[in-house]
Known about the structure:
By secondary structure, the chain is an alpha+beta fold. The chain has two domains: 3-81, Arc Repressor Mutant, subunit A (Orthogonal Bundle), CATH 1.10.10; 97-218, Trafficking protein particle complex subunit 3 (Muramoyl-pentapeptide Carboxypeptidase, domain 2). The protein contains eight helices and eight strands, in the order βαααβββαααββααββ.
Amino acid sequence: MATTRRSPRRREVLDVLRAAAGPLGVTETAERIAVHPNTVRFHLDALVAEGLVERRIEEPSGPGRPRTVYAPQPGMDRGGTRGYRLLAQILLSQLASRGPDARTAAMEAGRAWGRFLVDPLPPFQQPTAEEATARLVALLDDLGFDPMPEDSGEGQPPERIRLHHCPFLELAEEYGQLVCTVHLGLMQGALTELRAPLTATGLEPFAEPDSCLARTTAT
């Protein structure tokens, strides 16, 4: 889980602004939490930089100088804990409950995203196997798989691509049959979108202690 940490004092300043009936100045805010105005000013500047608080210039109703006031930005607080891994576990567990259909659905989802994510070729351009493999490797690299094609000889596209990192490692360890199927489908979808003369035929999870192994074959 990814967490955005905010100091207790900064949270207190933000809570005071949210509880106020209107915008507050530095001094007013400092009085409400009983700290020095300079401390409050520091946290207000940080909250403005985070996009959580808006700084305004308030014109006086009579004689006097304009003053700077602060008000919370509308909308939900974007700080705090994220639970994307938990969400993925919920969705994967629901998919796994579909039994034999689960892997088919995972494969189709991967293929659809592979077609969507790969950089397309110009119309009517047919890539060579080497060009298609290079684009596939670039996509896998962008996604965080740390791919390394294995040399198959001069003029031949690699038949194996080692994946030295899994961006979904914990989920793959828990739901490997589905997560790895998504990965294979993603590669197949990308090669289909490229109109490549090869396809991904297999993915061996944890083929080595430090890598998984994807296999490609000419079509």
